[in-house]
Amino acid sequence: MQDGDQRFVDSIVGAVRAALGPRDGFTPLHEPEFRGREAEYVLDCVETGWVSSVGAYVDRIEEMLAERYGVERAVALASGTAALHVALLVAGVEPGDEVLCPTLTFVATANSIRHAGATPHFVDAETRSLGVDPAALAEHLDRTCERRGDALFNRATGARVRALVTTHVFGHPGELDALRALADERGLVFVEDAAESIGTTLDGAPLGRHGRVATLSFNGNKVVTTGGGGALLTNDAALGARAKHLSTTARVPAENFGFAHDEVGFNYRMPNLNAALGCAQLERLDDMLERKRALAGRYRDAFSGLDGVRFLDEDERTRSNFWLNAIVLDPDRAHLTGAVLEALNAADLMARPLWNPMHTLPMFTACPRADVAQAEDMARRVVNVPSSPALADPT
Ligand SMILES: *Cc1c(COP(=O)(O)O)cnc(C)c1O
């Protein structure tokens, strides 16, 4: 490597070290943190026998989420992927439909579209926040789709384009207003994949109530974990009730203590044991957010003076949860992303590249897509750095 390149790579390792302070051993990307009543609530499940698919903690986590988000209904589910699947079904996605989906997202977003029998139609990212690029999307829809009545159709495939899913990448809202307006204008159902953004607010309102339906993930690497789990949020009570019904085997009251079901449902409910963990985690969400924001502030400072790289920051309207802190290498340093990842991991500072764009994965290469050049470019230049809330604790 040339001297200048080596100096650049060293400067990045130095900045991450400066942000984190002196540390011993390996620093993971995002660790769960159990400092509240987690053990107490989980033990309560074990001692009372309420460990499975019904129980007080399931009701409680749903109430806590509905209140926190200010929505009519929250439904606790087995995973973020299950939440997305149910969200698409209750949003009216039908087999054969296309669903507009960012190519820069975690694979669950695209998988869930397939689970619903639909086809992901991949769209480009904007380079400021990594969210869906609304201007590029509008231009793409103008060129490739046509309106018939209330519905939008892909001219090339003939399929109905039913919905737009947006991902709040690393906790940031992206161009949320523009995307929602575009969805409304074009007759698309707007779905928020808010898996990464619990706690983020835009103009003071939590991300997750801007769409007809939104989904959360409580996987172990997310800000709030239930071990594994997710939730669906909606302001439409009927839609929420339908999500609950579908995700709990579509069971209906039956005579003589029997079982009756009125459609093909899913066993997607969150067990009480997991909900117990989640209730204790949610009680401490604000504390975790505060420390995650403090950590992001340290990264911001450490990277502010550096050439050739920027910290992926929030804008003025946003208070981000900074789920995963990210740095973006300048285009002329893109060839050094591998060396930066190598150097950070060699220094026991866990670092990861951005996802491989969805349209490059073997099961999705044949799916329709827009020009995704910006997403491909960003996928080569973004690096995630350690982001656990505990990293902001005094050492
Ligand atoms: C974590 C995540 C999900 C859901 O993941 P699960 O592991 O199924 O809970 C969905 N979308 C995005 C963008 C995610 O980051």
For the termini, the CA-CA separation is: 35 Å
Number of helical elements: 12
Outline: globular
Please state the average pLDDT score. Answer: 97
Give the low-confidence spans: none
Q: Tell me which ligands are bound.
A: pyridoxal-5'-phosphate
Q: DSSP strand (E) fraction?
A: 15-25%
Indicate the radius of gyration in whole angstroms. Answer: 22 Å
SSE inventory with pairings:
Elements: H1 3-20, H2 38-48, H3 56-69, E1 73-77, H4 80-90, E2 98-102, H5 107-115, E3 119-123, H6 134-144, E4 145-148, E5 151-154, E6 161-167, H7 176-186, E7 189-193, E8 201-202, E9 205-206, E10 213-217, E11 230-234, H8 237-247, E12 251-252, E13 260-261, H9 272-283, H10 285-304, E14 309-311, E15 318-319, E16 325-329, H11 337-346, E17 352-353, H12 373-379, E18 382-385
Helix pairs in contact: 1-10, 1-11, 2-9, 3-9, 4-5, 4-8
Bound molecules: pyridoxal-5'-phosphate (PLP).
